[in-house]
Each structure stands twice: as structure tokens, then as C-alpha cells.
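Model it.
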Amino acid sequence: MKIFIDSADLEEIKSACSWGIIDGATTNPSLIKKAVDARGGTITMKDYIAEILETVPGPVSLEVIALQATNMMDQARMLYKTFSPHGDVAIKIPINTCMEDGMNLFDGLKAIKQLSEENIPVNTTLIMTPEQALLAAKAGAAYVSPFMGRIDDYIRTNLGLKRGVDYPKGDYYESAHVQRIVAKQIVERISRENSVSQLYRSKDMRELLAEGHDNGVYSGLDLVKRILQIYRTYDYNVQVIAASIRNTRQVRELAELGVHIATIPFSVLKDMIQHYKTMEGLRSFTADIVPAYEKLFE
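Modeled.
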């Protein structure tokens, strides 16, 4: 599994790259603006992005800001032409730019299709369903970025839970536990009704069957799993970048799934290297060093 850093903070990026484990980076306009503003005008946006690309040993995703296909393509060509001399550029295009009824649903796909034909690698962002990932692959995307944490939050919201109240942002979502609770309730409901037709028509049963998932997707990890299954079934040459990662357990489970890439925030990368027993063991080994052994290193 390749590891990207999900950050536009140059100091974070440089630090993580110095560890020797970074294969690429993902950014977005908000993060880049925040990082540039923090430097108090001592560097231009163009120079800052160029420095990121020159630091990262692999693809760096840069995102367009337009919502219409033609404008997105123009912006993508500009970004690619401007920054490719500095490194490996991928262009982030939203799978769907519709923010309200009446807007175009398919402009993202149109842009992905055209840019891929021009050999500009596209990272399709804001993927929330396997169906969206399938369409992005059909359009020619080089990468797709399913947002794990946002799907976990969405499912928990539908269960009546509030982030920051019922669980912290970095909390691992125990989807299997939720599924067991729902299954138990279904069994109890079935035990009270012998008629299959009554159960099938029951509004309460339909509502119960809809609990704990988003159209059959049970977690962010499950979203990634289903996308990988579709791509492997049809041999799509698209790399999955698991995004919106909140904790180290998600990273481990992604590696177990065989995802191509995980783009990981700096804070989660630091958590991955730490464990209390490792520190305890190091203290113990250090305390046990005898003078004769220490003398070997003089």
C-alpha cells in the first residue's frame, strides 16, 4: 500500500517525507490558502505549490475550483502545465458538481473523460458510493478518492448520533457492532409476526432494515472494499486513494484490504508509529545497557 500525506502544510510535508515512507500527497484549495496565509505574504501561491511538488517523491493532487465542465478542464490544463515541470501532478475533479436541484449532474464526468483523453491524470474526489466510483472508472479516471470518514459520520448521523457530542472526530466507527444490534432487533421483530406478507409490508420493518447503512454500504471501510471488488472484477486500471482517514485502525484495515493508496493526515501518521509498550521496552533496554557493551560504540 502506498502512503500519501493528506496536507498542504509544507513543514508537515517535509517532515513526513524525511521519514522515507511518503509516496505522494493530496491537497485542496482551502488547505493551501490557509498554509500560504500563515506565512504572512512571504511566498506566492505559485511558489508554494511548486515547493510542495519539489518536496514530494510522487504524485501531488491539485484541485480545480470551477463547477462547469469547460471551466474545470481549462483550470486543469493550467494547473497541469504550470506545475508539471516541478513534479508529478494529478488533477482533482469532483465526481459531481451539483450543489442544488437544477444544476448539471454530469459535468465532472465530462471533464474526467476529456482530460483523461489528453493524458492528464485525474483524481476523482468526493466519492461517496461504489456507483460513483464505477462511473469515474468508466470515464477514465486515474485515481478515485472515497471519503471514508465522511461516510462513517453520515451513517452515524442517520442513527441519531452527533459528532463532538456522542463521539469525537477521530473515533473508530464500530459498524460490525451496529449491524449486530440491528440484526437482533430484526429477529425480535420477526418473532412477533408470523406472516411474511405482513412483515414485507411493515413500515417499521422497512425502517429497521434501513438502519446502520447507506444503501447497503455499512462504513467507510466497506465503501472502499466494494469499490475494490468492482474494479478487480472488471480489471479497471484505476488506483483507489482511501481518503478522509480519521485513525490508525482504518489505515491497518485498508492495508489488509489491499487498497492501492491511503492518504493520511499528519496527526494519524504520527499515531501510527507510537505504542506504549514500545516506549516501555526502549526504556527497559536502555536501562539494561552495561558499561562493557556501551564501550563497544566508543
